[in-house]
Amino acid sequence: MNHATRLKKSPQTFRRLTGIGPGEFTSLLSKLAPLYEAWNAERLSKKTRQRKVGAGGKFHLDLEDRLLMLLIYYRCYITDAFLGFLFQIDDSNVSRNINPLMRLLAGIFRIPEKRIKVNREEVEVLFFDGTEQRIQRPQSNQRQSYSGKKKAHTRKVQVVVSKRKDPSGITKTKIEAVSKSFPGKVHDKRIYDESRMYNPQGIRRRADSGYQGAAAMEVPHKKLPKKELTSEQKEENRLHSSDRVCVEHGIGKMKIWRILSDRFRNPPSIHGLIFKNIAGLSNLMFA
User: Fold this and answer.
1) 3-state secondary structure of 246
2) Which residues contact 175 (CB under 8 A, 6 or more apart)?
3) What confidence tens digit (pLDDT) does each residue in 85-117 have?
């Protein structure tokens, strides 16, 4: 009996350790298996391969346990040594077991960077917001990564969220898009401009005051020097803030996976990939 099978016997513990339930895990595994087989076949048939097919080190864990290991890593963000101890493999083999699965999961979730596909009959407004995560101090170009807001070195992404009601009338949020990752110094509006996200015509866009001046974006009224906002403008700002709180909730749900809330220890080059995978897992559970 592998680790995943034993852990599924306690659904509550399974969700605490992975962020998703056993049912969602089984569904995700069924989608991952054919993608992994195709990837592995391509890997073994490369002309540059020097070993015969079947030669070389073997994986001690099956695909189910390797996926479980990756999800525990995302949810708990523990060290390779800790993961190796839990799954009874050498810590030097942890990355070899889980790294290929990261890109395969991205192929399953397909969280876009630019083209947002939504149904205009279901979604009237898209909510934009930037979020940043502390990183380890880089060895070079430290100024580019330094965030004046957080007073630390960070990476930023832009998240696009929609909200809709399910058949029972409950409002749910869904992560529709995640931009590529930017250094912490980059302003939200610049990320918006450079991302050049596209959505169907007729769908409005809303964001906070950090997007002042952004094209086709509804933002709160800005108080001008020596002038006060009117009571109507204040009420509009209140309604605007109340409406767009869903994007804060969407980002907050993603950050139950500690790989997005703790200090990011991985290379910055895969920050965006991991963020999209967590967005996919969040949609799997909450959308």
Assistant:
1) helix
2) 111, 159, 160, 161, 250, 254, 279, 280, 282, 283, 287
3) 999 999 999 999 999 999 999 999 999 999 999
Query: What is the pTM (predicted TM-score) of this model?
Result: 0.92
CA dihedral 278, 283, 286, 287 (to 10 degrees): 160
Q: What's the angle, vertex CA 199, arms to CA 198 and CA 203, rounded to 5? A: 140
Nearest to 86 by CA among 105, 116, 65: 65
Instruction: Tell me what pLDDT residue 169 has.
Output: 74
Backbone φ and ψ for 65, nearest 5 degrees, come out as -70, -30
83 touches 94 (CB < 8 A): yes
Contact (CB, 8 A) for 65 and 3 = yes
Structure tokens at 121: 């009959």
Mean pLDDT, rounded, for 167-182: 89
SS3 39: helix
Residue among 205, 104, 222 nearest 158 (CA)? 205
**Nearest Cα residue to 114 out of 193, 202, 210:** 193
Cα dihedral sign for 216, 114, 129, 212? negative
Q: Taking 70 as the threshold, does the pLDDT of residue 49 lie above it?
A: no
Token pair listed for 51: 């070993």
Residue 2 near residue 62, CB atoms below 8 Å: yes
Taking every pair of C-alpha atoms in the chain, what is the biggest distance, in angstroms?
A: 77
Give, to the nearest 10 degrees, the angle between helix 22-44 and helix 94-109.
110
DSSP codes, 115-165: B----TTT-SEEEEEEEEEEBPPPSS-HHHHEETTTTEEEEEEEEEEEEEE
